[in-house]
Amino acid sequence: MKFKPIYLYSVVVLIAIIILIIVAIQENSNSTDITINNEQNIPDDDVHKQLKNQMNSSPGKENVNEEYKKRLAELEQAVKKNPNDTTALKNYADYLSASHKMDEAISYYNKILDINPKRTDVYFSLALIYYNQQDFVKCEEVNKKVLAFDPKNQMALFNIGAVAATQGNKEKAKEIWNKVISINPESETAKLAEEYLGKL
Predict the structure, then answer these.
(1) In this structure, which CATH number among 3.30.200.20, 3.40.50.2000, 3.30.9.10, 1.25.40.10 belongs to the domain 1-29+64-136?
(2) b/e for 150-172, b at 16 or more Cβ within 10 A?
């Protein structure tokens, strides 16, 4: 079985959103107000008035916070408009997850699975949340649900191996990661499994 790019894209998008929010939060908490007054050298004509207005409306804590709220409201409206649109549900759930609103995100991910119970990307999003919350039982459960309809899914197997390794069960992790490699040694997931086997 080949690795489907949608899984990778979903993970990459989720990580990018998380990084953007973390960076925005850190910049907001570490920012200091610095006032630069360059208006004294700018001519007072029609061309330069626009530049002055742009200088006075630079992005700050309020602007970023407003953008976040606006985007969250847009995504929520899309879900309310069509509650069975799995794309809208996924976008909203991903945004909630990136915003550290895990319980709400889990709820929306589960709504997607009620509509389409074979969405591996959603199971992997749930697995990531549970893993980060150190709820390894639920993390393993959602990965096993993927294996129930796709027994050779390398990512689900890899994740179960990661849970085993995190819990200190190195033998189980080795066994599972070797299985990942045997399914398709050329895949990115197999290469990742090889890398982690070397670290055990």
Answers:
(1) 1.25.40.10
(2) eeebbbbbbbbbbbbbeeeeeee
Domain range list for the chain: 1-29+64-136, 152-200
- Write the Ramachandran bin of 99: left for phi over 0, alpha for psi from -120 to 50, otherwise beta: alpha
Task: Return the pLDDT at 45.
Answer: 54
Structure confidence by residue, pLDDT tens digits, 80-108: 999 999 999 999 999 999 889 999 999 99
Q: Tokens 């970023």 belong to which residue?
A: 64
- Residues, the chain: 200
- Are the C-beta atoms of residues 157 and 147 closer than 8 Å to each other? yes
Q: Tokens for 42, please give them.
A: 């700018």
7 pLDDT band (50/70/90 cuts)? Answer: low
Confidence of residue 4 (pLDDT cuts 50, 70, 90): low
Residue 39 has what DSSP assignment?
A: G
The DSSP secondary-structure symbol of 2 reads P
